[in-house]
Design a protein that fits this description.
It is built from 16 helices and eleven strands. It is an alpha/beta fold and about 400 residues long. The structure holds nicotinamide-adenine-dinucleotide and magnesium ion (MG).
């Protein structure tokens, strides 16, 4: 068996750490080519010492000098590179076989697209890239022959429940609809009025999953499920109206596919991202992920209920943006990133998040997408709009 060379974009994050955990269980299959990190330099240093990548990529030259010196002292030959061009370089280098795209937010778009354009096996955790640039992104996958494998647990589950020729079209393979499960986040059992005063700590304390801060807040507002609806519509070429969101508090059923003959196929497992990561790394084979077997008897029951649209307006906003198409989803994503950052910095309250997003969407009518520059410009403008509004209201 030949060894696959892997670049992990966002290695120091939650998905990055889980990816390296799976990789380290299979040294005969995987070797690390590059690791990237934006902060947490001690963690990146420890990862470099453990995995000995050819390159590490950091955000600025101060970080680079310090890390390079410490690695040299430890007799580690990893070369430290800086900035966005270097991210694209390690994502597209000829030697690389697999790229884990696990940078959070719009910052992940360029390097993820670089990996796609270079025809790599791309393990897509960064949902924001697809939300921002779905049409362009999927066209790039077709043009380059890249193998795109979803890491988001719901999309990974759907991918596992679909037939291998699903690209022929959902109706041609007998799919009626997709059921996207949602834990409902930490506030699923609260009433609307209580949401006004929740803190970033409460929002980040997810009941089932351990994740980075941004996606944790998105889960609490259910914008995460809205982004996932858009993500699913691009990945599987389905209309938003064919995707139903179902609250499933146990996070054991990771999503389901409903077929025209009445069969519903689901994927189940413990809520641990190492399962989808291992699946995508080895696909179409299966390898040990380190995740413990699902004990259905101790889970005992599986509950399902509809989401409350009043409690979670982000769901409606995301669905509207998905229906509107064009640049609407890029605007939605940018405004959400600005709002989440402001909430984490305690500048705004939790219930202000959808207000800022709705205002930004109203200010920026959707345009049909021309190219990547157009998306990046829209992203910049939407961030400015959201930020200006925030500055004048809070
Ligand atoms: P995280 O915050 O734990 O890690 C983010 C990583 O991106 C870190 O390595 C960080 O250094 C890097 N990063 C942050 N800003 C950057 C920038 N401007 N430029 C370059 N690198 C930057 O996030 P996470 O929870 O690991 O999530 C990563 C992505 O995967 C997100 O898009 C998220 O939506 C998606 N995802 C995560 C989970 C999960 O369980 N954590 C599940 C599904 C999808
Ligand atoms: Mg998910």
């Amino acid at each position: 068996m030949s060894v696959s060379l892997v670049t992990v974009l966002g290695a120091t994050g939650s998905i990055g750490v889980s990816t390296l955990d799976v990789i380290s269980r299979h040294p005969e299959r995987y070797s690390v080519y590059a690791l990237t990190g934006h902060s947490r330099m001690e963690a990146l240093q420890a990862q470099c010492l453990a995995h000995r990548p050819r390159y590490a990529v950091v955000a600025n030259s101060d970080q680079a000098q310090a890390l390079q010196a410490r690695l040299r002292d430890a007799r580690c030959e990893t070369e430290v590179l800086v900035g966005c061009d270097a991210l694209e370089q390690v994502a597209s280098a000829a030697e690389v076989d697999v790229v884990m795209a696990a940078i959070v937010g719009g910052a992940g778009l360029r390097p993820t697209l670089a990996a796609v354009r270079a025809g790599k096996r791309v393990l897509l955790a960064n949902k924001e890239a697809l939300v921002m640039s779905g049409a362009l992104f999927m066209q790039a996958v077709k043009d380059s022959g890249a193998v795109l494998l979803p890491i988001d647990s719901e999309h990974n589950a759907i991918f596992q429940c679909l037939p291998s020729d699903f690209a022929r079209g959902m109706s041609n393979v007998g799919v009626r609809r997709i059921l996207l499960t949602a834990s409902g986040g930490p506030f699923r059992d609260m009433c609307g009025a209580d949401l006004v005063s929740v803190t970033p700590e409460q929002a980040c304390a997810h009941p089932n999953w351990s994740m980075g801060q941004k996606i944790s807040v998105d889960s609490a507002s259910m914008m995460n499920k809205g982004l996932e609806l858009i993500e699913a519509s691009w990945l599987f070429d389905v209309r938003p109206s064919q995707i139903e969101i179902v609250i499933h508090p146990q996070s054991v059923v990771h999503s389901l596919v409903d077929y025209v003959d009445g069969s519903v196929i689901a994927q189940l497992g413990n809520p641990d991202m190492r399962t989808p990561i291992a699946y995508a790394l080895a696909w179409p084979e299966r390898i040990d992920s380190g995740v413990s077997p699902l004990d259905l008897l101790s889970v005992a029951r599986l509950d399902f209920r509809p989401p409350d649209p009043q409690m979670f307006p982000c769901l409606r906003l995301a669905r509207q943006a998905a229906e509107a198409g064009g640049t609407a989803c890029a605007v939605l994503n940018a405004a959400n990133e600005v709002a989440v950052e402001a909430f984490l910095a305690r500048r705004i309250g939790f219930t202000d998040i959808p207000v800022i997003i709705e205002h930004t969407l109203e200010c920026m009518a959707p345009e049909s997408v021309q190219d990547l520059e157009h998306i990046l410009l829209t992203d910049r403008h939407a961030r400015e709009h959201a930020q200006n509004w925030l500055n004048s209201h809070f």
